[in-house]
Amino acid sequence: MLDWPQIQCVTKVELTVSCQHLLDKDIGSKSDPLCVLLMSSANNQWYEVARTEQVQNCLNPNFAKKFVVDYYFEIVQKLKFGIYDIDNKTIDLSDDDFLGELECTLGQVVSSKKLTRPLVLKNKSPAGKGTITINAEEIKDNRVVNFEVEARKLDNKDFFGKSDPYLEFYKQTQTGWQLAHRTEVVKNNLNPTWKPFRIPLQSLCGGDLDKSIKVECYDYDNDGSHDLIGCFETTMKRLQDASRTSPVVKEYTFLDYIMGGCQINFTVAIDFTGSNGDPRSPQSLHYISPQGVNEYLSAIWSVGNVIQDYDSDKMFPAFGFGAQIPPSWQVSHEFPLNFNPASPFCAGVEGIVEAYRVCLPQVKLYGPTNFSPIINHVACFAKQALQQTTASQYFVLLIITDGVITDMDETRSAIVNASRLPMSIIIVGVGGADFSAMEFLDGDDGCLRSLTGEAAMRDIVQFVPFRQFQNAPSQALAQSVLAELPQQVASFFSLFKLKPPREPSPS
């Protein structure tokens, strides 16, 4: 096992992206752009960090979703911002129209604070008149503002039906107004009440309660020609004075919880279905090469090496699913790799790897590919942890699979139920299968629902195909799949008003 050098992060930087004069690739409407951020690994391979939301029918998008990156002063951190016109629901961007990209370094962005550059195509020729602007801001204020907003007697901008209003909150900067938050659209309603939301104080007013904030209300139109209903300017201080309770609260960070004694419990589930191929064959995804590796092992090492630092006893439950197991040869979707139901724990990542190696020749690969039993198994323990009065435990389930889920309806219900628990699910897809169904579970747009229509409380699933990381260093996969985890942990405990077991020392 290699010990990667520990490089101390100087600070976190929030990047806000907007574009101007994008290429129009759509017929009958305008492009629907999305921005993807990639970073360069130590061996100069690009890997995806995050994506913004998609903006409909717009050639001059202001993306509301921010990129938060660790800033290392002593490293040249190469960034690539890619702009795509999204025309389908798949996670693979190769199916979408490419509108241009910018390569730069994080050092260039932070030293400029606001960087505007032309977009170029893959052959480095100009992408029309398209430009990209990146604003950088250091994150050093963990206060957030809780908003509950309603409006009354809005102007009706629609000929048929009523306006479909949404709000945009803008922060005042030296170079003009910068989008800080966009609410959801409330359909056909002149007296809307928006879902409660929160905006970091730094994003809203730079932490200055007397700095102007602008709020604009629009009537949403599918063609992108949103009508302005009205706007006003205010300050956070005025909003506080008008509120019965202070909307500005200190929010515990992920490190507040970890340093305060919260444990992250790591569970691994491995796919032993027949579609993986005979483990004795070099074509099988379970075939262990002479070098002692396969994609399953690589995923376990990559993710496990990061997470094991946050669990003090380093004893991890490890399970298999989709195999016939001895002695009865019944199919099981939730069997311990060590065949000991009373104690399915493995000592560290090395223990998981060893249990997998010993288990593999003893089972018969079978099927189908059912996720819900193992999700519900971990959810039982997460539910018990929720009875604690502090944020003492959080559960992370890593599922490594080669194929499409057979029990999709049951899995959707299991994830919706788990979204109310201190739990996150990471799915790594190995092999060359079509994983488009997995994106449905990775509900970044918040639309995952159970078969009965019950919505997930929050997004707890992160999916990546392993093939994207075959040429990247081992830490790249972990960085991608674990990128959302700190926010998922902190937001869950905040939602349930659970404090760390020990109050963090004041900084």
Automatic annotation (TrEMBL):
Gene Ontology BP terms: cellular response to calcium ion; ERBB2 signaling pathway
GO CC, any one term: plasma membrane
GO MF term set: calcium-dependent phospholipid binding; receptor tyrosine kinase binding
Keywords from the named record: Repeat
SUPFAM superfamilies xrefs: C2 domain (Calcium/lipid-binding domain, CaLB), vWA-like
Domain C2: 1-119, 128-249
Entry-linked PANTHER family: COPINE, COPINE-3
Family the entry assigns: Belongs to the copine family.
Name this polypeptide is given: Copine-3-like
Source organism per UniProt: Salarias fasciatus
Source organism phylogeny: Eukaryota, Metazoa, Chordata, Craniata, Vertebrata
